[in-house]
Specification:
alpha+beta; Ribosomal Protein L30, Chain: A; 3-stranded antiparallel beta sheet; 64% helix; 16% strand
Length: 134
């Protein structure tokens, strides 16, 4: 099954659980037993689907590109601090930017990592762009 089908199944199971719970209050004793059993089955079916959907959610990854470095030394420090690169690698990125290229500071970053790197570079006096990877 693909992710969209499982997401729809999850939503249908949640709707069924809500509907069964709503009918439970006005049911007679035999109906209540049947509804409780149906609710139990629905909840048991829902939990593995919820776990699968949560664990297999398509991940979007980003690349962070350096676009400006007004204060070279501070930008080099920010690149090193946010990516763990060596001094030489960070300096080469800034030098490549000065030479007219747009070096990629980080590949395969999560959204949170990309935002953090851009913030650090911006605070250091530089600019960076984030692009979604295909």
């Amino acid at each position: 099954m693909d992710y969209e089908k499982l997401t729809r199944l999850r939503d249908n199971l949640l709707d069924a659980a809500v509907a069964i719970s709503g009918n439970l209050a006005s049911a007679t004793a035999p109906q209540a037993r049947d509804l409780a059993a149906a609710l139990d089955v629905t909840v048991r079916a829902r939990d593995p689907v919820l776990r699968y959907v949560r664990d297999n959610k398509p991940r979007v990854l980003y690349s962070v590109m350096l676009t400006e470095a007004a204060n070279k030394i501070q930008v080099i420090k920010a690149i090193r601090a946010s990516t763990g690169l060596s001094l030489q690698a960070a300096k080469e990125m800034v030098d490549a930017l000065v030479a007219g290229m747009r070096p990629t500071v980080k590949f395969h970053a999560t959204e949170a990592q990309a935002v953090s790197i851009v913030q650090e570079i911006t605070q250091a006096g530089g600019r960076a762009e984030v692009a979604e990877e295909p």
